[in-house]
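Problem 12. The chain below contains 210 residues. Write out its predicted structure in token notation.
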Amino acid sequence: MKNIIPICRTILLSALLALSGAAHAADGKARLDAFFKGLKTMRAEFVQTLVDAEQRVKEESEGVLLLERPGRFRLDYSKPYSQLYVADGTRIWMYDKDLEQVTVRPQDEALGSTPAMLLSGSEPLERNFTLQELGDHEGFTWIDLKPKEKDASFAYIRLALDGEVIRAMEMVDSFGQMTRLFFHTVNRNPKVDAGAFRFTPPPGVDVVGE
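Solution.
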């Protein structure tokens, strides 16, 4: 994965839009609110899959997500490439260990209303997204989030709730390409070292953008 893939998705379900129903309408939103209520930190192990518009798997990667609300997170990819993304609240650092290159950009410019900011941000979801209940399917309760920003880099985000835990996310961009993110483990409010969200470029690497 050579581009920052703003956190998120899993299990593409072409029939999701047909599954919305009044019986689940309040339940899904209530579960989502319960997930974010009191959420300060989170640690999750994940598998991320990139799927093209023809539903062909282009790439699969694994890593660990660590976040501290508001606005700080760390994405540490271990497979197939060793890459690190650190958002410190002001800037986001993208470190490609194989290329020995670091790219740094202002965080609000790089992320906007992306899935990464959805999880680590503190603003109500309704401020940046239009929410639609999609009902239950394959053991999850699904919610569709469409960005209100006209120039967003993605068409929609879908969240899969397992009880009151976000278990999966999927995001489709304007080209029909989908990024799926499935959380194997989700640890709410673990003790987090503040140093996890600080990044200093290693000696000798090229730094672009600073």
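Discussion. The first strand starts at residue 41 and ends at 51. Students who got a different answer should revisit the alignment rule from Section 12.3.
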